């Protein structure tokens, strides 16, 4: 990192950059067909009345090199909030220079400042470079837990079921 490096929270004006990183990440993860995000959706859901997540941007000089998207979850056992890292991404041409680690350090500081009890994220099982990177930071796999997911159709099916006592 020879030029001035910084990390800052994204603003509404950064939505095109955030969407670009989302698309780059989807290409890297071989999932471009799953991206339905638009600038309008991101504006509404990141900077609207009820933001669903926060975004950090990593900037080297004048160039955006990476981003991280995170939100708060809650541990009932700890009685504390946590940070869930949805995505962290550094463009391929900027990898290996410490930008990913810098984003993780910044997130750990946010977690500490906000009194979080955990900092969690999921990694694709084939993504050995990322798994190795996270382990180098002290992360451990939660082998006893599996991620479960409901998407649009399953959510709709479940939401239309009757509660006990409903007619």
CATH homologous superfamily caption: Gcn5-related N-acetyltransferase (GNAT)
Read across the widest sheet, the strand sequence of neighbours is: 1-2-3-4-5
Instruction: Please report the first level of CATH classification, the CATH class.
Output: Alpha Beta
Share in β-strands: 15-25%
Average pLDDT metric = 94
Cα Rg: 18 Å
Characterise the protein shown here.
- With 167 residues, this protein is α+β, with helices and mostly antiparallel strands.
- The protein has a single domain (5-159), classed as 3-Layer(aba) Sandwich (Aminopeptidase).
- It is 33% helix and 24% strand.
- Strand 2 (54-60) and strand 3 form a beta hairpin.
Brief write-up:
With about 170 residues, this protein is of the alpha+beta class.
């Amino acid at each position: 990192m020879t030029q001035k490096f910084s990390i800052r929270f994204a603003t509404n004006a950064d939505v095109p950059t955030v969407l670009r990183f989302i698309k780059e990440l989807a290409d890297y993860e071989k999932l471009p067909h799953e991206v339905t995000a638009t600038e309008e959706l991101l504006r509404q859901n990141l900077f609207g009345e009820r933001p669903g997540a926060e975004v950090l941007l990593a900037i080297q000089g004048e160039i955006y090199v990476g981003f991280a998207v995170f939100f708060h979850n809650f541990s009932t056992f700890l009685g504390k909030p946590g940070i869930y890292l949805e995505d962290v991404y550094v463009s391929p041409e900027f990898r290996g220079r410490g930008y990913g680690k810098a984003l993780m350090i910044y997130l750990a500081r946010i977690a500490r400042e906000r009194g979080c009890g955990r900092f969690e994220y999921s990694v694709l099982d084939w993504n050995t470079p990322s798994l190795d990177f996270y382990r180098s930071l002290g992360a451990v796999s939660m082998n006893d837990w599996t991620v479960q997911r409901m998407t649009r159709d399953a959510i709709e099916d479940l939401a239309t079921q009757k509660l006990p006592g409903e007619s």
